[in-house]
Amino acid sequence: MKISLKWLHDYVDVTEFFQKPEELAEALTRAGLEVEEITNRAKDFNNVVVGHILEKDKHPNADKLSLCRVSTGDVVHQIVCGAQNHKAGDRVIVALPGAVLPGNFAIRKSAVRGVDSAGMLCSLKELGLAKESEGIAILPTDAPIGKPYAEYAGYDDITFELKVTPNRADCLSHFGLAREVACLFGKELKAPKAELKTSSDSTKSAIGLEVKAFDLCPRYTGRYIKNVKVGPSPEWLKHRLESVGLNSINNIVDVTNYVMMELGQPLHAFDAAFIAGNKVIVDRAVNGEKFITLDGTEKTLTGEELTIRDVQHPACLAGVVGGKNSGVSDSTTTIFLEAAYFLPMSARKTSRLHGIDTDSAYRFSRGVDPDGTLRGLNRATALILEVAGGEAYGDHHDFYPNPVKKSPVSISIQTVTDRLGYQAEEHKFVDFMKRLGCQIEKTGETYKILPPTFRFDLEQDMDLVEEYARLNGYEFIPESLPVLKNMPSHHDKAFMLNRSTSELLRAEGYQQAFNFAFVGSKGEKPFLGPMEALKAAGLASSEKEIRIMNPLNEEMDVMRSTLSYGLFKNLNTNFHYGNMNGRLFEIGASFAVKEDGGYGESSRLGMAVWGRTQNLWNKSLDFPVVYELKGTVEALLKSLNISAYTWVTPANKAEVPAFLHQGQYAQLLVEGKKVGFIGTLHPVLLDDNKIRVPAALAEFDLELLYKGQPRPYRISSVSKFPVVERDFAFVMPKTLKVGDVLKDIRKAAGGLLLNVDVFDLYEGEKMEPGKKSVAIRLWLQDKNGTLQENQINETTTKVLESLKKNFDLSVR
What we know:
Blueprint: E1 2-4, H1 5-8, H2 21-30, E2 34-40, E3 48-59, E4 62-71, E5 76-81, E6 91-95, E7 100-101, E8 105-106, E9 110-112, E10 115-117, E11 120-121, E12 138-139, H3 149-153, E13 158-163, H4 174-185, E14 199-202, H5 203-206, E15 208-211, E16 219-226, H6 235-243, H7 251-263, E17 267-271, E18 279-284, E19 290-292, E20 298-300, E21 306-309, E22 314-317, E23 321-322, E24 335-341, H8 344-354, H9 359-366, H10 373-388, E25 391-394, E26 397-399, E27 409-412, H11 413-420, H12 426-435, E28 439-443, E29 446-450, H13 461-472, H14 493-507, E30 511-512, E31 518-519, H15 521-528, H16 532-536, E32 558-559, H17 564-576, E33 582-593, E34 599-610, H18 625-639, E35 645-648, E36 660-670, E37 673-681, H19 683-688, E38 695-701, H20 702-705, E39 724-733, H21 738-749, E40 753-762, E41 771-780, H22 789-807
Parallel strand pairs: 14-25, 15-18, 30-33
Antiparallel strand pairs: 1-13, 2-13, 3-4, 3-6, 4-5, 6-11, 6-12, 7-8, 9-10, 16-24, 16-25, 16-26, 17-24, 18-21, 19-20, 21-22, 22-23, 27-29, 28-29, 31-32, 33-34, 34-38, 35-36, 36-37, 37-38, 39-41, 40-41
EC number: 6.1.1.20
InterPro entries: aa-tRNA-synth_II/BPL/LPL, B3/B4_tRNA-bd, DNA-bd_dom_put_sf, Fdx_antiC-bd, Fdx_antiC-bd_sf, NA-bd_OB-fold, Phe-tRNA-ligase_IIc_bsu, Phe-tRNA-ligase_IIc_bsu_bact
Family: Belongs to the phenylalanyl-tRNA synthetase beta subunit family. Type 1 subfamily.
């Protein structure tokens, strides 16, 4: 939120901070109101002053240029000008040497067509104050010669960009911040005045009011004003709004925006001529009805929104945005001015549901002072009468059947002392509470503090302790180490396993991703396809989504069912940002609806691989990246001492997730139980997203993967007896899985087999169609003695017989 220092000065004396705004920024930041940026606009107009043209002559060497003698007070400057709309005697804007205009255009002494020129006569466009200009700016005849233009035009302001935390909605206005500054520095606070004159006519007779949804609108005020003249706002009002980043629209709308930025009370001015039936109704929307916002966007309402309506249709989404026919136009002559207190939950829900973010919604969502509603209405009425004329009716509406009341908080000075660790001073505590607007009553050693209605965050004694610490200064809290009386608790088993898994994957070249647990249903559901495939892989999922009741936006409206969708989005974003290869993993929770209707949460490991790391040694390699991913998974299984695992390719294509390649997909079985999947991303999916490198995903249920951990390691001494190698080449069908062959060899070879592996594969022209030659090496060892020839022959014979029997394989 932007705050103008000149505007703030209207309510609290901040004179000393115009020369040293950093000190005020530091004090506010220490008090919990972080100042993110300080902008001194006067610096943009350094060396830009008001000048007086004494003489205007033709340039001796150019017909289209003029030569002017311009006074800036004590000095007369010779300036060459190309514009033709000025004359001797005019007051103009002069940029002197040293000025830097928008576009980094530096003004220097120079020669123009052989004549010296010591400055420039400026148009508003050249100063960045207008989009178009027909010539240099001509100022009023009373403009003071030599005065800095920023000071003359009101641009000598300093603005703060504040980061206001959600609990400090009371500081979302200039008066609210002035209240905070007055409290911090012990200064006097000056409230804005509202000198209001009303006629004897009755607002209640002109416009009726019915508040049906009083549970969402505890207070509603309104006043009828006739004979207003809609037009441009006066300069002071425009400057005030522009200083905080708001555009001027017309005098009526500008006043409502001004009061919102001044007091923190949003308002809305209705064109009374368009209020059907001359009656305002505060009620919930009708499910399915249409609503067109001020900017022409059509919204379909759900029936949960609070609306301000007439007898025919909704005119406003309460506290969020006005309707197309509710706004003030140039033809408006009568208005109904509204100021209300809507429950924060109602405005926040409507704003997020329809994706409408306005200054009004921002304030109502965090909380507006219910006791300031009428004050805001009267202040805005007085300003409208000042800038737009008109006649304000008396007998205003003020629906407030159940005034909001705060409960008193009991606290003692000793409580403050005990919590802060240093002696709290009673007179300071009382002074702070008074300056915060609290009512104080003391009984014995106990104070009863009644917070004001604008401080929603003061509800218990610890809130008051925090206020004392904040206002007195956090630097006074002494540093001390806590006393450790008990032994530290043991680390959570799942945490330790996750940490070791993370360390291994990072060592494998993967980077850890952290994604939101919320995703968009419009994106995740089409990506995942039918959930049966995930269930078949051992990942508990449900077709029914867990929807967020109050989502931040439509991209975060459901709880995620898997990690795969988030990792795919990471992959897609990284690739299109120029990362042509990458390795990511994520450890996090997925969510599903249980069969009994409850909600389930499971811990998952997701992995994503795309592209290949090219270098001098591997640039000729060409293999699916899913194999690289498979190698990493097997390294993880080995680190967990899991040996009883296998990869299974389902025969039923319906068990393959829609986002994966049906021919490059496998499910992982650990000790006979499916724990997840691995696979190459579907080519159509890659093509649709313009991902031009191979990519693969994997996802596993960590609870199933970690089951039985820690698994004990069997340690044995290294055998001193030699290892014997035997190589065999087998011709087999291409459809036969080599893994099944190796599994059979291990079973047949028995205890003498140390290891078995493939060391060659041939599928050349000399092989029969549909065949491949696979060379397999066996390592044999007897740990109790040197292998004898008969032992070797007996083992290899068993292996060959088993392969012949089970796969009809013979040695090549």
